[in-house]
Amino acid sequence: MSRFLPLTLSLMVVSIVLLLHPLTDVQGAQPTASSTKTKQQGTTISIAKAPAQAVRLSASSVKKSVAAPIKTKASQTASAPAQVKGGSQTSGAAKVAARQTAPAPKAKPTQQAQKARKTGAATARNTGRPAAPVTANTEPAGAPQEIEKQISARSAIILDARTGGELFAKYPDNPRQPASTIKIVTAMIAIKSLKDNEVVEVSNHAASMPSSKVFLETSKQYQVNDLINAVLLASANDASVALAEKVAGSEENFANLMTISARMWGARNTVCRTASGLTALGQQSTSRDLANIFRYAMQQDEFARRMREKSITTSYGKVLRNHNKALWKVDGALGGKTGYTVAARQTYVGQFSRNGQTIVVALMGSETMWVDVRKLVEYGFKKQKDEQLARLSSSDSGGALRTN
Fold it and tell me: What is the distance between the alpha carbons of residues 319 and 234, in angstroms, rounded to a whole number?
């Protein structure tokens, strides 16, 4: 009996070990260790364990994973997308691994990026080619089309006073009644034909002219100098006819002389019928003609001197005030002549100078004359400056090319 005791004890120990062995395997399979190493066919494989809080494996899944053939790291990575595609048969751990291994989806472009692509701003980023250069607008502020819409004048022009070059034009050759602006021709002929101290008698025809007038009396005599100032500053119709009769004997003859003189001074479409500019059948001028006539007249010192006067007192004590309000309202005004009749509407021609630049502005058929004059003057100087800068830039470029 004592002989079989060691054998009996040995069998009991073996039984206890066999009973405990499965339980020990299951507990060992739980993800408590960070990693385990298994040798198969001479290759060492490292199997990373998922954290316990991320994935919990059941006893059955552990048994399946133990029974399944062991795969290398490369095969696991390659099969991950296929397992995800397989659907519900994939375990939770495999799904997590697949999500970590699969490439991230491309982010959709933002609305701002899409808008940038449409406008060409993202061309360089998307294609690798430089974006097309943006062409700068070389048109000066206030393009001609805009100025045309902003002024009420039916016809207008701006000339470079030095060269006679055109800076702006709106129907400049359309013939219209000139009104009192034509008195420029009357005064110029009188300046060239008569002496300042000559005496002028006033006819009934001259005295009967409607306003504007200086109310000349037939019983009195007047000096040429006073009448010329009355014509240019006060736009006097009676003084215009009195001078016309003094020079040519009649207003009709003088009107013919006016037409010829205007042609000589650069006016090609001007026909005069009166010395005053009062509406008459067949009488006409254009804004281009008025600008050319005034440009010529302002080159005569005596005419230009009279045009600058804001007011003057005659030899017989009458104060004459200049109708050209641009002398007060527009910077750089050197002189100008206004006009108005019902048929002509408001007409104007004047010369302006700023920073060494000089322009002539003429307009006809206006309803807002002084507003139009300001806009045209500002545009004219801006355009003249832009053209000057363009010429300088062109000459500099040419010089650079020659030196190279």
Answer: 10
| Sequence-distant contacts of 298-303: CB under 8 A, at least 24 apart | 298/161, 298/334, 298/335, 298/351, 298/360, 300/188, 300/191, 302/191, 303/187, 303/188, 303/191, 303/232
Nearest Cα residue to 27 out of 68, 69, 57, 72: 57
How is residue 303 written in tokens? 């005419």
CB 216 within 8 A of CB 202: yes
| pTM attached to this predicted model | 0.64
Do the bridges between strand 311-313 and strand 345-354 make them parallel or antiparallel, or are there none, so unpaired?
A: unpaired
Span 315-336, pLDDT tens digits: 999 999 999 999 999 999 999 9
Is residue 192 within 8 A of residue 286, CB to CB? The reply is no
DSSP 270: -
Token pair 């990026």: residue = 113
- Crossing angle of helices 5-29 and 59-67, in 10° steps, is 100
8 Å CB contact between 155 and 286? yes
Higher pLDDT, 11 or 127: 11
With bands split at pLDDT 50, 70 and 90, how would you rate the model's confidence at 391? confident
Q: Which residues of 44-70 are buried (b: 16+ CB within 10 A; e: fewer)?
A: eeeeeeeeeeebebeeeebeeeeeeee
Do 233 and 321 touch, CB atoms closer than 8 A?
Answer: yes
Determine contact, residues 147/125, Cβ cutoff 8 Å.
no
Q: Is 292 helix (H, G, I), strand (E, B) or coil?
A: helix
**pLDDT (0 to 100) of residue 91:** 43
Q: What is the mean pLDDT of residues 102-120?
A: 48
Dihedral angle at the C-alpha atoms of 80, 81, 82, 85, nearest 10 degrees? 130
